[in-house]
# Entry
Amino acid sequence: MSHQIEDTYDQFATEAARYGVEVTTVSSGEVSDAIAERIEPPAVGIELPWEEATLPESVETAPTPADIEAAATGVTAASLAIADYGSIALRSDLEGSEPVSLFNDLHIAVLHREDIVPDMEAAFEWFGDELRTSRDSAIIATGPSATADMGALVQGAHGPKRVEVLVLS
Amino acid sequence: MSSQRESKADHIRHIMETEGDAVGTNTRGFNEGRYESVAKLEDYEGLKDEARAIKEDAIERLPELIDQVTETIEDNGGTVYIAEDEADANEYIAEVCAQKDAERLVKSKSMTSEEIEVNEHLESRGVDVVETDLGEWVLQLAEEVPSHIVAPAIHKSRAEIAKLFNAYFEPADELETAEELTMFAREKLGELIQDADVGMTGANFITADSGTLALVTSEGNARKTVTVPETQIAVAGVEKIVPSVEDLQPFIELIGRSGTGQDITSYISLLTPPLDSPTIDFDDPETPIGGEDDREFHLVLIDNGRLAMREDEELKETLYCIRCSACSNTCANFQSVGGHAFGGETYSGGIATGWETGVHGLDVAAEFNDLCTGCSRCVEACPVKIDIPWINTVVRDRINTEKEPKMEFLVDGLTPDTETSGPDLQKRLFGNFEMLAQMGSAFAPVSNWVAQAGPVKQLLERAAGVTDQRDLPAFQRTTLVDWFENRDRIPPIDPDRKVVLYPDLYTNYMDVERGKAAVRALEALDVEVLVPPTSGAGRAPLSQGMIDTARTKAERVSDQLGPYVEEGYDVVVIEPSDLAMFRADYDRLLPDEKFEPLADNSYEILEYVYGLVANGADVSQLQVANGTETVAYHSHCQQRTMGLEEYSIEVLDRCGYDVTTSDVECCGMAGSFGYKEQYYELSMDVGGKLEEQLSAADCDHVIASGTSCTDQIDDLTGEDPLHVIELLAPPEY
# Structure
């Protein structure tokens, strides 16, 4: 791995930590166990797009609305991360990654190390090509859902209260 | 007090009492966060320039972009409706809901939807509308309107929200903490979103190339609003379109920092509707989600005056606004009253004058436009560099012009302005300050005794709304120009520099001592100084929205000082608000060939002294500190916007003083503002923060740079602060 990639990773982890997001590196083979250790049941998820990176049995991968409502944890892939903001990009898809990442208290996002870009400019170069071609949608998520509308900062307004990121090496 | 001024004063007092504390705490928090967050950017100014350029280009090409975005979104499978006005937009939205047999529409926060009052319209058609942003929901329950464009319930404290929820819902266990209130709202709103038929959002930006809506949020309610129901409606002003996805980048980096002081908000939704995500049908809980859904999307692009604003050279800049709220948070007056006083039907804060004029009309803007004092602190805070004070000045001028000119014999004699129609007497009195100063000086000290005398003060208050709570400025019989002409002193034979010291009205007629100090300091540093009689800079009429009169003054100043500049003289200015005229406002009032030489060769007095000292002048010629001397320094608002505070601090430091600075954005006096009876209490409230800081600093000297600041500090603390140059100038010859 080049130094540049390593620096970008470190910066991402440091920035994400400012929002209380824990970032951990795992190999594809380890990801299933790593998720299993972290989830609070019941959990829903969407299959990961990387070979060998599978979800543990305990994650429901064909969730119904009732599963989504009941889920304490949602597991999805992230398409991109932006190092200097500690942000991840969550792409919407027909499988339901968007609701699975949203209606829960804990969101576990799985990211590939090569998909961490250094800054917002690089991220928007990527979004530009992707969105013009695919006409897809994505969320740039930074830390958990938050509000200060009730007189003090509270995490978990409508979305997750906690976010964890697993980075595939 | 006239009944109109009295009711304004009552309204402001009531808002300060009931909402001032919550608004003050929150806006100051946002404002501090902004300073911290933008400081982390490598190239903040460059990013602002980029954002500005994108908006300029987009508004220039707006008709073309509207066509492009329409085509793109329709290609994607959505519908675009261009609504001419509020009624048109509401009718269309109601029709979409009717076709869907919609019983409930859930909304994420959108100021544009507030502008068209879509909630009321839909409710009249039997649709249950639920605001899902927690702040908006609180207001919906309380039946109140937003007091801030980003944090709508900023005027409500946690305790008030708890009281509201407990009374409204009567929960088994009383709600108290922010955590409890938030979780309660999440659950309640979650249920309401589940059964919703239509989701409505606004849009912070819309890209013409991909048809993507960018939504800047933190709670996650916008995501749910979009994801759950089958039908999505987005309402947005036409000005929200930018050409490409890449154009979003500078805005995404700036908007959270500029507004609430967050580097980035929790969620930036990049929605390219109709959304490729399964709907969640909670009425069919056991069928797994997934696959293609029959999603419907409507973008309602709202004109409602915007295309006319685009054709209006002065209001056009308003369309660059990205609604970040920086101009509200940084505004000293807004910090005291919030948007329920400093706002119109929908929008609030400094930029609201532009929006309300364009969208709802001049009458609405006239209600609050005076609360912009032109302090200019919002100019550097604005991520798209809108000259917000100028928009306020132009609108003030238009409000003046709309009024019928009044023939007032006595006043016309005292007010030789070039206004063709009718600013009110209060504005004309302050706008013609130069004439008052000339007469006041000519008849001093009698004029001062008369002005301070009870009957005259009462008359001024009754007729012109000049508060009797303050001492009026005392005019000096011997002006700075007179003193300079008559003094017996041989100029330096081989001066290092040649300077024209501009005798601004305040220095020339009232605060002559600071003028003398400036002359002494400059001469001590081997500078040749001239103080020629010169016209007022036009700050006073400009601040009253009397642009023609200000332009006449600007032309005179340029004619009088131009020849000196041509001969190689530097122009040195003591009053920061007048230097800001030369450097910025004259760009609007004079042709380039007159504006540029003056702007390029004018300096604030301490900026100039710093330049001399940095180039080898002997600082010990000034009044250096005697041992450890401490000073509490309040820099003038416009001086800070020009980036000149540092020079005063640096020179003080080199002269051995230990400096503590205030960080309040403005003293609250702002020229005539604090003398107007309807704003006196607000002015003192704003000043209260400055007083706190100055007394906490507990220094040997209190010094300031502007006339207004010194007058205000005098009224607040009873001690007459010096101008920086008075502290530093060598003693009298």
Remarks:
- The mean pLDDT of chain A is 95.
